[in-house]
Structure formats: C-alpha cells, structure tokens
Specification:
Length: 135
C-alpha cells in the first residue's frame, strides 16, 4: 500500500517488531497519539501503556514499558525497555506479579526509596493484563 508506514519496536534484548503498517497508536507521556504516513516529525517519551498498530485491517497490541518514540514521515521507531505482544503475555504470571507488587506496595511508606519502582511494577503488570485480554 502507498499509505504504509514502517514501524520498528526495539527493546534492549531484541527487535520486537519490524514491518509496514497502516497506522500506529503510541502511549506518549503527554497522552496517547496516533501516527499515519506523512505525519510531522517528532520525538516523544513513552509511558507504560498499550502500543498498537493496524496492518491489513487487523489491530495488534503490545504492552510497552517506558521509552522513546521517533516519528518521521514514513517511519516510526519505538525504543522501549520492554514490549510484549498481547497474545504472548502469560496472564497467570502477570496476575501473580501484580499481586506480589501490590502486597509490597501496601507495606511501604510513600517516602520509601523503592515506592515508585514498586508502584511502576503494579502499573506494568496491570497494563500487561489489560493488553493480554486483547490477544
């Protein structure tokens, strides 16, 4: 298709996805944003959330960790700490990780040096569960 956009999702461990897509939706730190071919160039930080793309009229979702997005008119590069496709997420493991993190969080004071890290773990596990339901 002439309207296709190149998308690459990269983590420190692997290239999670590389291919042509019709559109991408990114969980930017200032809010979710969509990208089509011809989009204005931009850089954005990414928050823990759902990244999705459409290819051949089929939507695919990933649970992504924090990172950055580089948008060019014909290419989107996503650099994130982690990315899991919805159908590859282990729901039981995500539930256990969420429960464990929530149990640790309730025992902590907000001033604890690990509070924000554990809070992010709860958010990450919750997002993984929500995205997994779409797989």
């Amino acid at each position: 298709m002439a309207d296709e956009l190149m998308l690459e999702i990269v983590t420190p461990e692997k290239l999670a996805f590389s291919g042509k897509v019709e559109e991408v939706t990114v969980p930017g730190s200032e809010g979710e944003f969509g990208v089509l071919r011809g989009h204005a160039s931009l850089l954005s930080s990414i928050q823990i959330g759902e990244l999705s793309y459409t290819k051949d009229n089929k939507r695919t979702s990933y649970a992504v960790d924090t990172g950055y997005a580089e948008v060019l008119s014909s290419k989107v590069t996503i650099l994130v700490e982690g990315a899991e496709r919805s159908d590859m997420i282990d729901k039981d493991l995500a539930r256990k990780e969420k429960a464990d993190a929530e149990a640790r969080l309730v025992k902590m004071a907000k001033e604890d040096q690990d509070y924000e890290r554990i809070k992010a773990a709860v958010t990450r596990a919750d997002m993984r569960l929500r995205v997994a339901e779409k797989g």
